[in-house]
Amino acid sequence: MHFLTLLLVFQVASFPPPDFILKDAKHKEPKSGVQISGGSITIQQGVGTPSSINTLTFSKDGRFLAAAKDFGRVVVWDVLKRQFLCAVDTGQGIVRAIALSEDGSLLATGGEGDNFSFKLWSLPDGKLVRRYQKFSGYARTAFFGPRSRTLIVADNAATIHILDAEADKRLLDLPAQWTPLLYPDGKTLMTTSTLEYNFWSTVDWTLQRKTDRPSGGPSTLAIDPERDVLVLATFPRGVIRLARLTTGEPLPAAPSPELPNFNSSAGGFAALASNGRFLLGHSGGRLSVWDQRTGGTCASELMYSSAGTVSPDQTLLAASKNDGIMATMAGTPRTDGVWLWDIAKLTARCIPGAQKN
Q1: CA dihedral sign of residues 111, 105, 281, 247
Q2: What is the C-alpha separation between 142 and 43, in angstroms, rounded?
Q3: Is 357 contained in some domain?
Q4: In a domain, 313, yes or no
Q5: Whole-angstrom Cα distance, residue 92 to residue 114?
Q6: Can you tell me the distance from the alpha carbon of 104 to that of 127, in angstroms, rounded to the nearest whole number?
Q7: Closest-CA residue to 278 (of 346, 228, 219, 221)
Q8: Hey, which of 35, 122, 225, 312 has its CA 20 to 30 A from 187?
């Protein structure tokens, strides 16, 4: 049944090729934790793969794009110039969380190594500015707060840390909270607890309100406060659903066919674009677009990665492609890197009738 559902989704329509691809600078890659020998694959846990991209993020002005990789490497590109800017060797092992300050002058990183440290770097010189320690787990998500004065960091021990971005100081811990989502105006932070969604003021970090979390424990993926929309992935199948942000009430809108197998544990992403009309994200190992007006869906080829993001102005979709191992096995050229699409052109070519509705 799952196979049939996937087949139906991916036969609806296919992504056009990316408008451009960003590549890492040429460097000597360390030995991968995934090795091919005699046609079989062996995986060494905790080592990682040099070409893997775990997370992508834009600066607020959309000029810079950063990629968190394995082996402690973080790569930053100038998107406007479509060129490599710099690479930072963080020493943090498999890097899971990254954030860029509003003007792109600071980079925040966190990974599974280096005793779960969280670090702040200046750009483009890649010099270490500050190191935060004493985390009980590695950082999974990070972003800068309003005016880049704070850092909001969620670790895998279900604690959200509020850090002072201008000093080596932890301002507040929010225990038993996860999946932080920051409102576009930066004034409100939404977090998830076992039974509730909580909404915090980023001015004084007081709890403003809370709503009941829907039954089944769905994962929160994205929010659209202006249209009162919350994007969820149901458990255990990871099917995409919508709810009202203010109440948690399920909304009737659903893609046809449905988009299954969203894997948040693999770093998948979802985002709303074009005034909330299109939902972009990962589904079944591919990128997907869902047009909420027509119900139509569209899917990319297999990306072998779940990292992706949308630019703050919602004009660009960026997603990583990691086919290094598969290309090696097949003897074909590698196409790994960060693939970028103009969202307006993508949806016009991908969803029949998107421009007419």
Answers
A1: positive
A2: 28
A3: no
A4: yes
A5: 5
A6: 14
A7: 346
A8: 122
End-to-end CA distance of the chain: 32
Give bridge partners of residue 227 from the DSSP assignment: none
Q: pLDDT tens, 102-153?
A: 999 999 999 999 999 999 999 999 999 999 988 889 999 999 999 999 999 9
Q: What percent of the chain has pLDDT over 90?
A: 59
Q: What pTM does this model have? A: 0.89
Domain that holds residue 49: 2-350
Which of 354, 335, 357 is CA-nearest to residue 344? Answer: 354
What sign does the dihedral 89-91-96-99 (CA atoms) show?
negative
Radius of gyration of the chain (CA): 20
Q: What is the pLDDT of residue 4?
A: 31
The CATH number assigned to the domain holding 220 equals 2.130.10.10
Best CA proximity match to 232, nearest among 278, 279, 285, 176: 279
Residue with tokens 């670090």: 119
Q: Is cis: bond before 257, omega within 30 of 0?
A: yes
Residue 308 falls inside a structural domain: yes
Measuring CA to CA, which residue among 16, 62, 18, 17 is closest to residue 348?
16
Contacts of 331 (CB under 8 A, 6+ apart): none
Task: Give the total number of structural domains in the chain.
Answer: 1
CB atoms within 10 A of CB 23: 12
Both tokens assigned to 69: 């990789």
Task: Phi first, then psi: give them for residue 16, nearest 5 degrees.
Answer: -75, 170
Closest CA to 294 of 353, 243, 224: 353
For residue 271, pLDDT over 70 is answered with yes
CA distance 40 to 37: 5
Residue type, 21: I
